[in-house]
Amino acid sequence: MNAQHLIDFSLHLADNTLVLGHRNSEWTGHGPILEQDIALSNIALDLIGQARYLYQYAARLMNADGGNKQEVLEDMLAYLRDSWDFRNCLLVEQANGDWGKTILRQFFFSAYQYYFYQELESSRDPELAAIAEKSLKEVSYHLRWSSEWVIRLGDGTEESHARMERSLDDLWMYTGELFLPADYEQALLPVDIAVNLTTIRPLWEERVRQILSQATLTPPGAVMQKGGKQGRHTEQLGYLLAEMQFLQRAYPACEW
Amino acid sequence: MEKQHNWPLWEVFIRSKQGLDHKHVGSLHAADATMAIENARDVYTRRMEGISIWVVESKYIHASNPDEAASFYDPANDKVYRHPTFYDLPDELKHM
Amino acid sequence: MTSDNEKNFQDKVDQDIRIEPRDWMPEAYRKTLIRQISQHAHSEIVGMLPEANWITRAPSLRRKATLIAKVQDEAGHGLYLYSAAETLGISRDEMIAQLHSGKAKYSSIFNYPTLTWADMGAIGWLVDGAAIMNQVPLCRASYGPYARAMVRICKEESFHQRQGFEILLVLSKGSTGQRRMCQDAIDRWWWPSVMMFGPNDDASPNTAQSMQWKIKRFTNDELRQRFIDVCAEQVKLLGMTLPDPDLRWNEERQHYDFGPINWDEFWNVVNGNGPCNKQRLAARVQAHEDGAWVREAAIAHAEKKIQYGKTA
Question: In chain C, which residue's Cα lies nearest the Cα of B84?
Answer without folding.
Answer: C159
